[in-house]
Specification:
Blueprint: E1 2-13, E2 16-26, E3 30-34, H1 41-49, E4 56-61, E5 64-66, H2 70-76, E6 77-81, H3 92-99, H4 108-117, H5 131-144, E7 149-153, H6 161-174, E8 181-185, H7 189-195, E9 198-203, E10 206-212, H8 213-219, E11 221-226, H9 232-235, E12 240-243, E13 247-252, H10 255-262, E14 267-269, H11 273-283
Helix pairs in contact: 4-5
The structure holds adenosine-5'-triphosphate.
Adenosine-5'-triphosphate binds near residues 16, 38 and 39.
């Protein structure tokens, strides 16, 4: 079962487009959405949530079509982002009073416990919250209405390392219920290395891959060696290459092919998600 199904989702801005994206986000897992700056991650998330209207294509969330079933869907999902969707002049406490009645499964006791745990004063105005505090507040709201699908846009970027770890633990807790799903966009790929089951890589408005983290790690390989090994034929096998006067380092998306080409003559290493993102952005090739 898929928590989110996107079909041919397209949005054209004057200088950028998200182009015909089709994507299944598996229910019961954490999916990490990665990609360099400005490749369309937020646009994609905003289209999923109905904040940005797609030019064409369809969005299904928890089995229901958006935007036709938006009100029902919004009961069951939560968004965590530092893009604040609340009234800046209200306090946390007033904001809670305004939003809680909307949710059928709202749990006030849980909400107050999270405020305490996250050290958020109910008297603080939304406008006075730091980026990290906004994330914490959005997370307290998300966890207090029993959301089955948590959509997080760059949730860790404004957070200190201590709370980042705490957040990852909270997410792991939420995943104890196997119906729950999280989609999590981040530049901080080490966070995703730690908790994501699936990785969706988006580059220049297109999906590069959507696979389990294990599949990604098995397929891709970093090759390091002497520059003399490179000729134009060999270069074509690389998604991205970094060269010095004497050596090279590059990413190949077929480990067996790399072993056949370089076996014994170059060093083959397991890449990190950051390596995959870096070389893909550098190489600019779409490799499926
Ligand atoms: N309302 C808009 N009008 C015109 N262009 C837009 C609009 N919103 C976003 N864009 C453009 O779309 C592109 C993708 O932006 P988006 O915010 O989706 O990227 P992103 O992958 O989330 O980036 P980042 O990681 O830096 O947050 C950018 O070039 C941005 O300038």
């Amino acid at each position: 079962m898929n928590a989110i199904e996107l079909r041919n989702l397209t949005k054209k801005y004057p200088l950028f487009s998200v182009d015909q994206i089709s994507l299944d986000v598996k229910q019961g897992y954490i999916t990490g959405l990665i990609g360099p700056n400005g490749v369309g991650k937020s646009t994609l998330i905003k289209m999923i949530l109905g904040i940005v209207r797609p030019d064409s294509g369809s969005v299904k969330i928890l089995g229901n079509d958006m935007p036709a079933h938006e009100v029902d869907i919004k009961q069951r999902i939560a968004i965590v982002s530092d893009d604040c969707f609340y009234y800046e002049h209200l306090t946390i406490s007033d904001t809670k009073k305004m939003i809680a009645p909307f949710y059928k499964k709202w749990n006030d006791k849980k909400f107050n416990n999270y405020l305490e745990q996250f050290e958020l004063s109910p008297k603080k105005k939304i406008a006075d919250l730091s980026k990290g505090m906004k994330i914490k507040f959005a997370l307290a709201v998300a966890l207090s209405h029993a959301a089955e699908l948590l959509i997080m846009d760059e949730p860790t970027s404004g957070l200190d390392p201590v709370f980042r770890r705490e957040l990852l633990d909270l997410l792991a807790d939420m995943m104890q219920d196997e119906r729950n799903t999280i989609i999590f966009s981040s530049h901080i790929t080490t966070d995703l290395d730690r908790i994501a089951d699936y990785i969706t890589f988006i580059n220049r408005g297109k999906i590069v891959f959507n696979e389990t983290k294990e599949e990604v790690m098995e397929r891709y390989v970093i090759v390091k060696g002497d520059k003399q090994l490179l000729d134009s034929d060999i270069r074509n096998h690389f998604i991205g290459l970094r060269e010095t006067a004497v050596s090279f380092e590059g990413l190949v998306d077929d480990r067996q092919e790399a072993e056949r080409l370089f076996g014994g003559y170059a060093l083959l290493e397991k890449p990190s998600l950051e390596d995959i993102m870096y070389f893909t952005a550098k190489g600019g090739r779409i490799h499926a």
